[in-house]
Amino acid sequence: MNVGFIGTGNMGRILIEAFIESHALRPSSIYMTNRTLTKASNIKSFYPNTNIVRSPEEVVERSDLIFICVKPLDIHPLLLKLNPLLLPNKCIISITSPINVEQLEQLVNCQVARVIPSITNRALSGVSLLTFGKSCHRETKNIIEELLRKISTPVHIEDEVTRVSSDIVSCGPAFFSYILQRFVDGAVKETSITHDQAVQLASEMIIGMGKLLETELYTLPTLQEKVCVKGGVTGEGIKVLAAETGEMFEKLFKSTHDKYYEDIEHITQQFGK
């Protein structure tokens, strides 16, 4: 089986690297192209057996599964151009959230799926969000799920929770790395700890907390309970967090959803509905 990638920007590259390093795909089975071929060449410099082709059409001709890793507004014109080559035995996999599988199925005659990956997949961990179109054959579904299982925990989602799921899984690492950076900056500003030492301690703390959650020994609430001692230091810190965060996360999700609906409006103009 050959797998194609149209677009080798950040997320396209993450998927390619994760699939290769997890042994989900042989480098020689990967066909990739990008508007700027230098980006694809950079990947090939690390994985010489991967294949660079000069056009999306050639990716489609040579591949069974085709990951579409381009900007949302570029997908409609791209698929219109590629549709004559998208035979029923092939499957396109979009990685963008504003376009649903039903819209994709309006345009093409092949099988359709949507996968929303996360940067955590590069460490062969985290979640990937999965939605299949009605056109997708059972065998194809199994192949896609097995690929994703090599680099993540695949989770099926419905359209109504696409944005919030993506906020948590895909945007979450950026949100929480920002919070962690502010945590570190506060420690450095208010105490004599060095920046490097604070980063090391905070990073190891996050890794350890993730492993604790992975073991399911503790839930998020029980982690707080176990660390907080009545009348202790941690409790005082939690009071500050409760007061200062307020409705911060509610506002965060409102903001991401506002942008999402704005994107959907532009997409709807292209797709017609």
Automatic annotation (TrEMBL):
HAMAP family: P5C_reductase
Reactions listed under catalytic activity: L-proline + NADP(+) = (S)-1-pyrroline-5-carboxylate + NADPH + 2 H(+); L-proline + NAD(+) = (S)-1-pyrroline-5-carboxylate + NADH + 2 H(+)
Family, per entry: Belongs to the pyrroline-5-carboxylate reductase family.
Organism: Metabacillus herbersteinensis
Protein known as: Pyrroline-5-carboxylate reductase
Keywords linked to the UniProt accession: Amino-acid biosynthesis, Cytoplasm, NADP, Oxidoreductase, Proline biosynthesis
Originating gene: comER
Annotated ranges, domain Pyrroline-5-carboxylate reductase dimerisation: 164-260
Keyword Cytoplasm: yes
Gene3D superfamilies (alphabetical): NAD(P)-binding Rossmann-like Domain, ProC C-terminal domain-like
Lineage: Bacteria, Bacillati, Bacillota, Bacilli, Bacillales
Pfam families linked to this entry: F420_oxidored, P5CR_dimer
Pathway terms, separated by semicolons: Amino-acid biosynthesis; L-proline biosynthesis; L-proline from L-glutamate 5-semialdehyde: step 1/1
Domain Pyrroline-5-carboxylate reductase catalytic N-terminal: residue ranges: 3-97
InterPro entries: 6-PGluconate_DH-like_C_sf, NAD(P)-bd_dom_sf, P5C_Rdtase_cat_N, P5CR_dimer, Pyrroline-COOH_reductase
EC identifiers of the protein: 1.5.1.2
UniProt main location, coarse: cytoplasm
